[in-house]
Write a structure and sequence with these properties.
Elements: H1 2-39, H2 45-82
Amino acid sequence: MARKAETRTKSKAKDVRAARKQQNAVQRFIRETMGELRKVSWPSREEAVNLTKVVLIVMVVTGAFLGALDFLFLQIFKLILNT
């Protein structure tokens, strides 16, 4: 019986250590993430606004181009299927 109690005690100790390691892993992840975010070279407000404008312009131009292609192919398929 003493062996069973000793085994249970060891098992509980392992569970406690595993739980601590789990907490430490989460804490380490958060600490390392914060450290990496401090290293990031963040853009200035002006740079962010200018880059946002560029993205929006590219999106509009790309959308217009794809819309024009879609319309062109639609007309071609209508022409082919109606004859």
